[in-house]
Every structure is written in C-alpha cells, then in structure tokens.
Amino acid sequence: MVCCTGVVLRFPSPNRPLSVRLSLLTGALAASFLSGTATAHAAKYAGIVMDAKTGKTLYSHQADSLRYPASLTKMMTLYITFEAMRSGKIDKNSEIPMSAHCSRRPPTKIGIRPGRSIKVEPAILSLVTKSANDVSCAIAEYFSGSETRFGKVMTAKARGLGMSKTVFRNPHGLPDGKQVTTARDMARLGIALREHFPEYYDYFSARSFSYRKTRYGNHNKLLGRVRGVDGIKTGYTRASGFNLVSSVRTDGRSIVAVVMGGRTGASRNAQMKKLIAEYLPKASRRGAGNLIARAAPAGVQYGMTIASIDPSDLPLPMPSPAFRQPQTITQSNAVVAVAAAPKLPPAPVSAYAPVAAPRPQKIIASHTPPQPVAKIDTIKTSSTVASPGQWVVQVASVGSPQQATSMIDEMQQKASSLLGRRQGFTVPFVKDGTEYHRVRFAGFSGKSDAWSVCKGLKRQKIACYAVQQ
C-alpha cells in the first residue's frame, strides 16, 4: 500500500498474531503521518539574513515566496504608531479606547474591558511582549476607525517602504488568507524600524512588562540568551508556522534575520541561532548610511494600487466614542488615508525608497476612478523613454514641467559621472485636480545597476530610489 506522502506501507504477514499485525500497521501509519507533517513544515520554511549596514543578502531561502505573517504584522502596527508619536499627533500617555469588538479578539490578549482604555506606552509594550490582539485592534480603530481601513493604510505604508509583495488586512495577524508577506519584506520592515525610530526601538528589547498587577513576558526567547540580539518580533498561527524576525548588533556588525514557517518555537529559535552564528561574522563593519528611505510627502495616484503615506500625512485618530478621554486631536483635523486593497503584485522587491506623491486629504474609494487625461509635456515622459518593467531611478517629485526640466538639468550637471548618458524623463500624475511630475532617469541595465547608481547619488547627498517602471 502506498500512502499519499509517498511512504510505502506493507501489511504484516497474516501468519503473525493479530495484535502484532495491528501494532506494526499502527506504527507504519504514524511514521507516514509524521513524514507528511515534516514535509508540510519544510514547505512553509522561508528565511533571509540581510546585512543591515549594506543591504546585502547574506542568506536566502524562499525569501520572495508568499507566507502568512501572523503576529509579525504588529511590526507595521507599531511602525505607524511610532510615526504618530514622532509627529506629535499622539504621545506615550495618549489614551487608546477599547471597543467591544476589539475586546472580543481571540488570544493572545491582555483582556481590557470594553469602555476602558490603555495608554500608548503600555499598548506598545503589550504588542512587543504579549503580542496582544485586543490592543492591536484598538490601535487600528483609534487611527482609522476599523481594522479593515487600517489594513489599507498598513499596505500603503508597506509599499512606501519597498515591501512590494505584502498585503495587510488586519493589524494583528490573526488568520486571513489574503494577508501575506515575504521573508524579504519582513527584513525590510525590521531594518526600517531600527533606522527610522531609534528613539523608540528599545521597546523591542523589553523582556517583560507589567500592567494592572500582571506581568507579561516577551515571547522572544532569544533576548538575553543570544549575544547581540536586541529584538524584534515573534509570530504564530497554525497556517503560518512559527515566525521570528531578529535584529542583531555586535562587534561593529549588524544584521536582520527572518525565519518563517518553523515547526515549533524551539526549532524556529534553533534555526535563527544557526543563521546568526553563521552569517553575522560575514556582515560588514562599514556601511553607506540608512538603507530604507522614509516615505516622501505622498499620496495615492488614481488608478494605482501602490501608495505611500508620509509621517506628516499619518491618519489622525477617529472621532471619540462616548467613553474616550478628552484629546488634543479633534475631529476637525482628522484625516483617514486609505487605498484599494492591492492584488498580489508579481514584481520583485523595489529599491530603497517609496514612490513620492502629494499629500492625501480624503478617503480614496475602493473602486478605480477614471484615469486623468495627461497634458502635453514638453519634456520626455515614461512612454518615450522607459518601457514597463525597466528599472529607473527617481530623484524628485515636483509641481510643474518647468521644475522637472530644471531638476533633470541640475542632476545631469551635479552627477554627470554617475548618470552618464542616462536620460531624464517625467511621470505626470494628478491628485485632487493638481498635476505633479515625478523626475526619473532611465537607461539602466537592470536592478543592480539602478541600485548602484542610487547609492552613489545618496553619497552625494542626493535623495533617490530605484523602482521598476
């Protein structure tokens, strides 16, 4: 007999006693089941180790294949929370109310009753340590009014950070078949959290926190046990397996490593320790500065599924329910910026920085509005210079064709040794009735060439990012 896993099951000889035959057959079936289980978990596994100083991939296994993030999702929830703190829209003592809906989120949770609230700082710590689903939900409602709307904001922010394959549908990572990511995208998010919020990053090093006389330990068991590990986040659902993103800094070297789809928490941790031991010594002690650019002043381009949101454009908290404590943020200046949930893009991970666009001022409906009619441009545009799928480098987003022309001329003079004969062009788009122009350069042989030139521009203090046209 051949089982579905490919294990051949041979029935014991009928000459043996029945009890012996049953015992042997049971053992064979168990072996088949365990073999199938191991195969399934092996198929889930994905991992990556990135040099956090140079961006070089030191190790990769299925790093661009779609996986379920589980509670790694909370890294993005925290990223957006940190942006709000940085911008002054909230502070660590701001009160986040708990709705009945959020209080019913399944564990893990800290059990805040509906009508009560939690301050921002313990809310952050509850996500980092306990991985509290109820608090993650409350944060989403606080900023965007619902988990669904916040998921769209999260996805837009992911695009802004170059996480090209990630789709968020909720703020906590509870099972949703359409909420997916990759090991590479999670590594980018881990690096972005370190680079963009050094003043808040230490929260990820907390081994425990106490709230209302209860102490909650951190699920990340590598903290304090593996030299140099300073965060970041664990995750688990039955569909995802055991996930972990780790940040390591020691001896002048720095990496961010990701393990997804572990069979158990122990095997996941063992694999992470192995990756750290093997690849940290290969990381560089020298780097060229930050790898992940913050989202530029930006908005959503009509008809596109890619969007980015600047920290200054972060959605302010929704109007207060009756039980919420008074806040300095009022309904009159609240902004909710969302975009249509994108389909899974086949494109590879984009380069270091997001697509720039003007500031969002209203909710973008889930349908795709008609494309605006492009005006005649006196300079070269994407249709005449770069074909779809080609790698280009963007250096600015400006308000007029004249500014775009001047920017192209300026870049060709300031960085002639890097840009050479590569052609400048514009990508016009319309937001709220106003036309803007992205300034880009084409003529690169591929992704590596575009990235290399962009790195050189950054060394000359010229902001840029590489992206597929």
TrEMBL record:
<dbReference type="InterPro" id="IPR007730">
    <property type="entry name" value="SPOR-like_dom"/>
</dbReference>
<feature type="active site" description="Proton acceptor">
    <location>
        <position position="74"/>
    </location>
</feature>
<keyword id="KW-0133">Cell shape</keyword>
<feature type="domain" description="SPOR">
    <location>
        <begin position="385"/>
        <end position="469"/>
    </location>
</feature>
<keyword id="KW-0378">Hydrolase</keyword>
<dbReference type="GO" id="GO:0042834">
    <property type="term" value="F:peptidoglycan binding"/>
</dbReference>
<feature type="active site">
    <location>
        <position position="131"/>
    </location>
</feature>
<feature type="binding site">
    <location>
        <position position="233"/>
    </location>
    <ligand>
        <name>substrate</name>
    </ligand>
</feature>
<dbReference type="GO" id="GO:0009252">
    <property type="term" value="P:peptidoglycan biosynthetic process"/>
</dbReference>
<protein>
    <recommendedName>
        <fullName>SPOR domain-containing protein</fullName>
    </recommendedName>
</protein>
<keyword id="KW-0961">Cell wall biogenesis/degradation</keyword>
<keyword id="KW-0732">Signal</keyword>
<comment type="similarity">
    <text>Belongs to the peptidase S11 family.</text>
</comment>
<dbReference type="GO" id="GO:0071555">
    <property type="term" value="P:cell wall organization"/>
</dbReference>
<dbReference type="Pfam" id="PF00768">
    <property type="entry name" value="Peptidase_S11"/>
</dbReference>
<dbReference type="GO" id="GO:0006508">
    <property type="term" value="P:proteolysis"/>
</dbReference>
<dbReference type="InterPro" id="IPR001967">
    <property type="entry name" value="Peptidase_S11_N"/>
</dbReference>
<feature type="active site" description="Acyl-ester intermediate">
    <location>
        <position position="71"/>
    </location>
</feature>
<dbReference type="Pfam" id="PF05036">
    <property type="entry name" value="SPOR"/>
</dbReference>
<dbReference type="InterPro" id="IPR012338">
    <property type="entry name" value="Beta-lactam/transpept-like"/>
</dbReference>
<dbReference type="GO" id="GO:0009002">
    <property type="term" value="F:serine-type D-Ala-D-Ala carboxypeptidase activity"/>
</dbReference>
<dbReference type="InterPro" id="IPR036680">
    <property type="entry name" value="SPOR-like_sf"/>
</dbReference>
<dbReference type="GO" id="GO:0008360">
    <property type="term" value="P:regulation of cell shape"/>
</dbReference>
<dbReference type="InterPro" id="IPR018044">
    <property type="entry name" value="Peptidase_S11"/>
</dbReference>
<keyword id="KW-0573">Peptidoglycan synthesis</keyword>
<feature type="signal peptide">
    <location>
        <begin position="1"/>
        <end position="42"/>
    </location>
</feature>
